[in-house]
Amino acid sequence: MMVTSGVLSPEVLRELCSKFYADSRNVLAQNVCTKVDPLDACLSRKTLENTQHAFTHKVESEGKPITNQKNSGRCWIFATLNVIRIPFMKNHNLDEFEFSQTYLFFWDKIERCNYFLQNIVKTAERGESIEGRLVSFLLNDPVCDGGQWDMIVNLINRYGLVPKTCFPESFSSESSGRMNGLLKSKLRDYAKVLRDLVAHGASTEKIEAQIVEQMTVIFRIVGICLGIPSETITWDYYDKTKTFNSIGPITPVEFYTKYVKPYYNVDDKVCLVTDPRPSNPYGKAYTVDCLGNVVGGRPTLYNNQPPDLLMKLCAESIKQNEAVWFGCDVSKRFASKQGIQDLNAHDFKLMFGTDVQVVLNKADRLLYGQSTMTHAMTFTAVSTDSDGKVKNFRVENSWGDDHGQKGYNILTAEWFLEFVFEAVVDQKFVPADVLAVFNQDPIVLPAWDPMGNLAR
Predict the structure, then answer these.
(1) HSE (CB half, 13 Å, CA atoms) of 402?
(2) Residue 333 lies in domain
(3) Is residue 387 part of a domain?
(4) Which residues of 25-56 are buried (b: 16+ CB within 10 A; e: fewer)?
(5) How many domains does the structure of the chain reveal?
(6) Is CB count within 10 Å lower at the N or C end of the chain?
(7) Are 169 and 282 in contact (CB under 8 A)?
(8) What is the CATH number of the domain that holds 171?
(9) Is 449 a domain residue?
(10) Taking a C-beta distance cutoff of 8 angstroms, is the pair 340, 50 a contact?
């Protein structure tokens, strides 16, 4: 009887099993990993002993309390507001403070849904098939929680900021899955309506009127789930001296412009990325097709630079007392409970007889789907050696104070080079030739390119 090539025959399976039990280390590893989390079992004791949360340079003060995005994908919003609140708290003499993450989340949902509907019309008008890769990609996740730096700038410039007490959390901001499910269902319904209108030659006016009707329903769903921000706020608070203060009534845009922007102007910050794929040379500007959140807002731009430059600028920013927003592939070589982002955090080879996660180089990990941006956080401190070489960073996360050292991670320079993909620093720290890249006409990457993953 002929055996089909590639079939795992009983003989092959018996050989695999025999090889497994021939090595007693496999049996020991099996006994351990069937009882505990395999990652915990691989955790390196020596790395734990050598990890200390002490840094040569640290921002003057860190934000309090530690924030918690809970069961949502709002890390990019939390990381941004964690950076902004540091100078705000200092200049307003506050012990603790949070900006409202839900406020920006609300407006991002509204704007993101409109952005999706407009993209559906644009792709239909340029003849993209409903079964083609682009439209299928857009329909797969019409409204996610993630986002990029340029997208948060769009929201802050258009809608301003408010203290968290003026627009607190809701069930659906802390656990966004149910609300997102409702929105995705309606957006797919509306996508068919809009594509049919385009196919039948409907006028621009008729299509726009239809989108306004659709957005009426979208606004209703989001408003019911998150609440609707007021046009003006009044913020009552005590400062460190226990003195009562009151600001308002004031619009959120006025609040940002008058009380936040003098200390942290989002338009002064630039986002640099590091994408080492051979197809995407350093020193070039890139964007991603159909990626954004605000129609008429600034596009999502990537200024591609080597990772050592990003690390140098992050360190310089911290030395100048400015925290740094950054995006990374958080799940790799990360001891979450202990808050250690270190290539030596786990010894997979000792446990499984093979290495994982860093076998391919950074470029190949992007190409083969092994690595991508998944999470945004904040650098607040850096350690350097006697020659000024970066050793590690202190990271403020947004997963609550029961992770890491009361909410903070430690991230090594080696980990940075492998798994950090972007960072936001003030343009005053950036060399002129690097800033000039932003003036280029960006190369357009496809909508599904991994460099857009943090916004999905």
Answers:
(1) 3
(2) 57-455
(3) yes
(4) eeeebeeebeeeeebebbbbeebeeebeeebb
(5) 1
(6) N
(7) no
(8) 3.90.70.10
(9) yes
(10) no
